[in-house]
Amino acid sequence: MAGPLIPVEEAQARLLAAARPIETRETLPIWAADQRVLAEPVISRLTQPPFDASAMDGYAFRRGDVAEIGDRLEVIGESAAGHSFSGGVGAGQTVRIFTGAPVPKGADTVLLQEDAIRRDAGKIELTFLPDLGRHIRPRGQDFAEGEAVLAEGLLLDPGRLMLAAASNHADVSVYERPLVGVIATGDELREPGSTLGPDQIVASSVFAIAALARRAGADVENFGIVADDPKAIVEAVERAKARGVDVIVTLGGASVGDHDLVQSTLIGLGMRLDFWRIAMRPGKPLMVGALGDIQVLGLPGNPVSSMVCGLLFLEPLLAKLARRSPPNRLATAITETELAANDHRQDYLRARLTRAEDGQLHVRSYGKQDSSQMKIFANSEALIIRPPHAPAVEAKEPCRILMLRDGV
Fold first, then answer.
1. 2: part of which helix (H) or strand (E)?
2. DSSP E strands, 146-218
3. CA dihedral 121, 127, 132, 133 (to 10 degrees)
4. Going by DSSP bridges, is the β-strand pair 280-281/58-61 parallel, antiparallel, or unpaired?
5. I need a labelling partner for 128 at 20 to 30 A (CA). Which of 49, 184, 366, 397 fits?
6. Which of these, 79, 111, 116, 108, lies nearest to 95 by C-alpha position?
């Protein structure tokens, strides 16, 4: 008996409940750590700025030495970044200073260079009176030695990598990425660029699923196209296990038809099958199980179905394993087309998306929704979500959508 269809939300919850975030760590140079998750805090090894520094080009002086515009100060030296002034500033004196340079001892204010007039005999005349402490960045204003500047669990991005480097770290401890092994099955499949026979097609979904997995924070290894043969499937799975994958993704053969051998073969290898029939369209024959500590996700062989299932199941699974927040793809839009009443399966309709001047999203469903049509999926910016038994919706009414692309 095949058993009842499982609602999408229940299937997602069961899949994620069994997922355990990756615990293993590795140390990477910060040059290669973008989009990795910190496995321990980054503790600053220095104080920044390490000294009172000038924020502008100008003149460092003692604010108490001047009383009014027109007062003059004697220029006694220069302080530049990497070349500080070694002496101190006394009464009636100033030092020419440049952005980032240490403020000389005794000085407490910086006058902008455009607020000074150079006079003969090495003096300047003030045309403006800055407030005490103006244009000085005090020592430690940004962060201090010993301070935790980045917390464990943060996803590294350009700004956080900048801070790690500034706090004098050449490398960081990060969690390893989950490793996904992809196995495509089907006697009819051939690699892109092949010369095709009359009953053969190009294997395309493997590349889409691999790209989706990488964007979700995983590394991916392709274990190739496998024939509809139990021995070939076993051999591919054993190679994936030997490689140490965290997730095996199969494409095709997850159902129980005469030529769908993946499920039965994996069960024969000891897979614990959780479920495999989802109340959704496209993508009903989706298999979820575990082979020891390896999570198994059997996606439909149909490319569009595999992508929809990948977005709903593989992406959040990998985000949890990788300790990342899954992208929030859900939104509300105004439908520009009528939406028919739905049956017992949750539909995901490919659609074009636009944004009005007021910021409101508008969505237009494609008329044809055959799951074999990849071009329509590639040109879609969203999927309209039609819940089970949803009533018909008139045009200009709101509906829920799953965003496929940013920037709409």
1. none
2. 148-150, 171-175, 179-185, 189-190, 201-202
3. -80
4. unpaired
5. 49
6. 79
